[in-house]
Design brief:
The complex is a heterodimer of chains A (467) and B (200). Helices cover 33% and strands 17% of the residues of chain A. Chain A has 467 residues and is α/β, with parallel strands linked by helices. Chain A is globular, with a radius of gyration of 21 Å. The mean pLDDT of chain A is 97. Chain B has a single domain, classed as Alpha-Beta Barrel (Aconitase, domain 4). In chain B, 34% of the residues lie in helices and 16% in strands. In chain B, strand 3, helix 3 and strand 4 form a beta-alpha-beta unit. The chains are: A alpha/beta (467), B alpha/beta (200). Chains A and B meet through strand 1, helix 2, helix 3, helix 5 and strand 8 of A and helix 2, helix 4, helix 6, helix 7 and helix 8 of B.
Chain lengths: 467, 200
C-alpha cells in the first residue's frame, strides 16, 4: 500500500460510515459558529425537536455585524442587535460556549480558533463561513458549510460529504523582501484560477510554506476558497506544535506530548499519492495587487495590466467587465492609481504579524490627505498584544484610525463601508463587485504592508520602495 | 408526510449569462442582517438589478415565472451563505443549469433539494440561445436520466452520484440520514484521541 496524504488520514479517522449515496458520514471535531449563518440552523433544530448532540464541540463568537468604533450594547443597528441576542439565546439554551465581547476572547472566528488552541492538527473543522479553510494551516481538514449543514452538525456532529481529490502545491525558492504570504496565495490563484480548485483539497508545501510562521500559513489557507478549493492545508511540523504549546484549549503536560506525537503522525507520508501536483517558484513572486472583480485578476505591483488580446478566451469577458467596473485601463500599471480608503484587517490579514508589518511602513510617514485609513485587529487578543507593543500609537500617529476587533470592511454587515465608487486598498480576501458595502465600490486586494504604503502615498505604491 | 423526492424540474427558464457570479452579487451582505430566510426572494441580485435599471434577466418579462435558472461557469463562488440559494428559491427557481458551480453553493442547493446540473460548454450555449430565442418553451431538468431537455434537443448533464441519489430518494435533508447512524457517532468520537482524552 502506498502512503497516504493528511487529507486521507483525517478523512479515514473521522469516518462514521459510508452512506448509501456513496458519500461519507464524517464526524466533525470542531464546529465554530457566528451570528450570521447560525440562527436559522437553531430554528430548524427547534422545529425538528432535536437537541444539540455534542454542545462541547461547538464554540461561538460574534464578528460580522459587530461595529468597530464601539461594541457597546444595545448595538445601534436593531437588526444586528437582534442577531446578537439570538446567538446569546441559542448558545445559552444549548450549553455552547460563546466568546462575546465581555469574555475578552471575542474576535473573527478564524482568528480566535487558532489563538485559543481550539484549532488543532488532524481535526475536521466546519463553520458556516467559507473562510473556514483558514484552519488548514494547522494540518486540519477545515471547510465552510451552509446553514442547513450547520443544522446537520448541531444535530449529529456529522456531515454527509464526498471525499475531495488532493492537489499538492509546492512553493519553491525563497521570497524576496517586501513579498508576503498574501502575495504567494494571490500568485497561486492567478496561476490556477478562481475555479481551478473545485473538487480539490489544496496541500500547500515546499520550502516557502515550511519556512512560514503559522500566521503566514493561515493567510495562505484562508484564501483557498478564492481559488475554488473548499479546503487547503499545510502539514503539521515543529512550528505547528510550538504554536499550540500553552494555548488555552491545547492539552498540557504529558497529554501535550501524546497529542504532538499523534499530530505529527497525521502529516502526509513522503510517498503519498496526489491527484495533481503543481510547483510555483516563490523567488519569482512579487508584491501583488488585484485589478479586477475576482481574486484571480491580479498583477505584480510594477506590472502593466493585461491587454484583453493577451488573455485566454475564457477570461476575456470577465476582464472586460472588470475593467469597465473598476475604471482601469489595460496596458498601464496600477502604481499611479489613487486610493480613497485603506483597510488593514480581516480573517486573511488581521493578526499581530500583519499589524507589525503594516506598522513598520506606517512609521515612515503620514496618511496622505483625503485618504480614510483604518486598522482593525482580528481579535481582542490581537488588539491587546498590539497595545503592549505600542502599535495603536504608531498607527494613530500616522493618521490611521485604530478600531475594535471584527470583520469590519471586509464585507458590508457593520457600519464600516465604502461610499459610492470609492476605491479601497484592502488586506481582505474578496474584490467582488459591491463586496465592501457600496454597490459601486471598488476593491484592490494586497498585503497589509502594501495597504499601509498605499495609505501613505495616496495611491497604489510598491512597498519595496519604503522598506 | 410530504414527498421530498426530486425526479425532475420542468418549466420556463431564465438565462443569466456571465462567469464567476459570486454570492455577494446573488444576495448582497446587507440583506444577511436577519435571523430567518423569509423575504430574501425580493432581494435576489438586488444591486445588479438596480444598476441595470430593469434590464436584468430576473426583471425581463419574457422570463417571468421561470423556475429553471441557466447560468455560466463557477456560479455561486465566494461566501458560503445559504442565503444565496434561499433567495433564488424564494424568487421562484427550483433548479439550476450551468457550466459549473462553486462547491459550497452546489452543496447548499442539494441541502435545499434544488438540482444544480452541469452541461458541456457547447450544450450550455445551445440551451442559452434556444431559451433566449423562445423563452416560452418548457425546459426539463431530469435528475434520474441526468439530462436537460429543451426544444432543440436533449443534453447529457453532470450531477454527482451521491447528489443524484439524495435528490431521487428525497434524503437531501441530511439530518435524518445522519441521525440514523445512532451510537456509531459516539463510537467514532471515542476513537479520536482528541475527543476521548490524550493518553500520556
Amino acid at each position: 500500500m502506498g502512503g497516504r496524504s493528511l487529507l486521507d488520514k483525517v478523512w479515514d479517522a473521522h469516518t462514521v460510515r459510508e452512506l448509501p449515496t456513496g458519500q461519507t458520514q464524517l464526524f466533525i471535531g470542531l464546529h465554530l459558529i457566528h451570528e450570521v449563518t447560525s440562527p436559522q440552523a437553531f430554528a430548524m433544530l427547534r422545529e425538528m425537536g432535536v437537541p444539540v448532540r455534542f454542545p462541547g464541540r461547538t464554540f461561538a463568537t460574534v464578528d460580522h455585524i459587530i461595529p468597530t468604533h464601539t461594541q457597546r450594547r444595545p448595538l445601534a443597528d436593531a437588526l444586528a442587535e437582534e442577531m446578537l441576542v439570538a446567538l446569546e439565546k441559542n448558545t445559552r439554551g444549548n450549553g455552547i460556549a460563546f466568546f462575546d465581547a465581555a469574555s475578552g476572547r471575542q474576535g473573527i472566528v478564524h482568528v480566535i480558533g487558532p489563538e485559543l488552541g481550539l484549532t488543532q492538527p488532524g481535526m475536521t473543522i466546519a463553520c458556516g463561513d467559507s473562510h473556514t479553510s483558514t484552519h488548514g494551516a494547522f494540518g486540519a481538514v477545515a471547510f465552510g458549510i451552509g446553514t442547513s449543514q450547520v443544522r446537520d452538525v448541531l444535530a449529529t456532529q456529522c456531515l454527509a460529504l464526498a471525499r475531495p481529490k488532493t492537489r499538492r502545491i509546492d512553493v519553491t525558492g525563497k521570497l524576496s523582501s517586501g513579498v508576503y504570504a498574501k502575495d504567494v496565495i494571490l500568485a497561486i490563484i492567478r496561476r490556477l484560477g478562481v475555479k481551478g480548485g473545485v473538487g480539490f483539497a489544496y496541500e500547500y508545501a515546499g520550502p516557502v510554506l515550511e519556512g512560514f510562521s503559522i500566521e503566514e500559513r493561515l493567510t495562505v489557507c484562508n484564501m483557498s476558497i478564492e481559488g475554488g478549493a473548499r479546503c487547503g492545508y499545510v502539514n503539521p511540523d515543529d512550528a505547528t506544535i510550538e504554536y499550540l504549546r500553552g494555548r488555552a484549549y491545547a492539552p498540557e503536560g504529558a497529554a501535550f506530548d501524546a497529542a504532538a506525537r499523534w499530530w505529527r503522525g497525521m502529516a502526509s507520508d513522503p510517498d503519498a499519492a496526489y491527484a495533481d501536483r503543481v510547483e510555483l517558484d516563490g523567488s519569482a513572486v512579487a508584491p501583488s495587487v488585484t485589478w479586477g472583480i475576482n481574486p484571480g485578476q491580479s498583477v505584480a505591483v510594477d506590472e502593466a495590466l493585461p491587454r484583453l488580446a493577451s488573455l485566454p478566451d475564457a477570461e476575456r469577458a470577465s476582464a472586460e467587465e472588470a475593467y469597465a467596473y473598476m475604471g482601469l485601463r489595460p496596458g498601464e500599471p496600477l502604481t499611479q492609481t489613487a486610493v480613497d480608503v485603506c483597510f488593514i484587517g480581516s480573517c486573511t490579514n488581521g493578526r499581530i504579524s500583519d499589524l507589525r508589518e503594516a506598522a513598520r511602513v506606517a512609521r515612515t510617514g503620514k496618511v496622505a490627505p483625503g485618504v480614510r485609513a483604518l486598522v482593525v485587529p482580528g481579535s481582542r487578543a490581537v488588539a491587546d498584544q498590539a497595545e503592549e507593543e505600542g502599535l495603536p500609537d504608531v498607527f494613530r500617529g500616522a493618521g490611521f484610525d485604530w478600531r475594535e476587533p471584527g470583520c469590519s470592511m471586509c464585507l458590508a454587515m457593520n457600519p464600516d463601508k465604502l461610499v459610492g465608487r470609492e476605491l479601497c486598498a484592502s488586506s481582505s480576501n474578496r474584490n467582488f463587485k459591491g463586496r465592501q458595502g457600496s454597490p459601486t465600490g471598488r476593491t484592490l486586494l494586497m498585503s497589509p504592508a502594501m495597504v499601509a504604503a498605499a495609505a501613505l502615498k495616496g495611491r497604489v505604491a510598491d512597498v519595496r520602495e519604503i522598506l | 408526510m410530504t414527498d421530498t423526492r426530486v425526479e425532475r424540474v420542468s418549466g420556463r427558464a431564465c438565462v443569466l449569462r456571465g462567469d464567476d457570479i459570486d454570492t455577494d452579487r446573488i444576495i448582497p451582505a446587507r440583506f444577511l442582517r436577519c435571523v430567518t430566510f423569509d423575504g430574501l426572494g425580493e432581494h435576489a441580485f438586488a444591486d445588479d438589478r438596480s444598476q441595470s435599471k430593469g434590464d436584468h434577466p430576473l426583471d425581463d418579462e419574457r422570463f417571468a415565472g421561470a423556475n429553471v435558472l441557466v447560468v455560466g461557469h463557477n456560479f455561486g463562488c465566494g461566501s458560503s451563505r445559504e442565503h444565496a440559494p434561499q433567495s433564488l428559491l424564494r424568487f421562484g427557481f427550483e433548479a439550476f443549469v450551468g457550466g459549473s458551480f462553486a462547491e459550497i453553493f452546489a452543496g447548499n442547493c442539494t441541502a435545499l433539494g434544488l438540482p444544480a446540473v452541469v452541461l458541456a460548454p457547447d450544450d450550455l450555449d445551445a440551451l442559452m440561445n434556444a431559451v433566449a430565442a423562445r423563452p416560452e418553451q418548457t425546459v426539463t431538468v431530469d435528475v434520474r436520466a441526468r439530462t436537460v431537455t429543451c426544444d432543440v434537443g436533449t443534453f447529457d448533464a453532470t450531477l454527482p452520484d451521491g447528489t443524484r441519489e439524495q435528490l431521487l430518494e428525497g434524503s437531501w435533508n441530511a439530518t435524518a440520514v445522519l441521525l440514523d447512524a445512532g451510537d456509531a457517532i459516539e463510537d467514532a468520537a471515542r476513537a479520536l484521541p482528541y475527543v476521548s482524552g490524550w493518553a500520556g
